Amino acid sequence: MGTEMVNVDEIPFPTHITIATKPLSLLGHGITDIEIHFLQIKFTAIGVYLEPEIVGHLQQWKGKPANELAENDDFFEALIAAPVEKFLRIVVIKEIKGSQYGVQLESVVRDRLAEADKYEEEEEEALEKIVEFFQSKYMKKNSIITFYFPSTSPTAEIGFSTEGKEESKFKVENANVVDTIKTWYLGGTRGVSATTISCLATTISAELAK
After folding, report:
1. What is the Cα–Cα distance from 32 to 39, expressed in whole angstroms?
2. CA 20 to 30 Å from 37, out of 59, 64, 119, 143?
């Protein structure tokens, strides 16, 4: 049986993935991009994989239209907090040095933690290790960054693979940093990719209506 694929900006994403034990479904996808002088520059394509059971944790939003959910950060906070496995598959469209990605991740997470008064030595150390992990990587087109968030522990496993090299992995064990990474990618209006957030809202709104 071949896995069905969904194309996100011409990059194929499998509709289902199994990381640990349960099959996860592609419930949202999109891109990160910026517009400079009316020119759209695309950086990455994103696939968000979640346990289908997540819908059971979001019943209070049943009947709400997708455009309303996309604007509702409480909905996305509940999605992030739901005790289900979550997996992000991020494919590079525009090549970038790993150090640039690492520093971008670090500054976003650091600023958000500082704002919430949760940025202490442990968080700083965890972020330094993430920057170190990405430092030596070169993210050419079609390289893959993954974030796996298990349902049972507040940790994240970051993976990086690029053509011709074995996948390298790194575990983040600081709960505040892990939470903030989740929010960066899944945090509703605070998410890095509006297209991904909108797609998640549309899919889950339709699932809740069943």
Report:
1. 14
2. 143
Answer for the pair 31, 9: CB distance below 8 angstroms, yes or no: yes
Would you state the pLDDT for residue 20? 84
Q: How far apart are CA 107 and CA 99, in angstroms?
A: 12
pTM: 0.96
Backbone angles phi, psi at 201, to 5 degrees: -60, -40
- How confident is the model at residue 21, as a pLDDT? 83
> Exposed, middle or buried by CB within 10 Å (0-12, 13-18, 19+), for 78?
middle
Spatial separation of the C-alpha atoms in residues 32 and 29, rounded to whole Å: 10
Predicted pLDDT of residue 100: 96
Burial 169-201 (b: 16+ CB within 10 A, else e): eeebebbbbbbbbbbbbbbbeebbbebbbbbbb
3-state secondary structure the chain: CCCCEEEECCEEEECEEECCCCEEEEEEEEEEEEEECCEEEEEEEEEEEECHHHHHHHHHHCCCCHHHHHCCHHHHHHHHHCCCCEEEEEEECCCEEHHHHHHHHHHHHHHHHHHCCCCCHHHHHHHHHHHHHHHCCEECCCCEEEEEECCCCCCEEEEEECCCCCCEEEEECCHHHHHHHHHHHHCHHHCCCHHHHHHHHHHHHHHHCC
Q: Tell me, what's the pLDDT at 2? A: 54
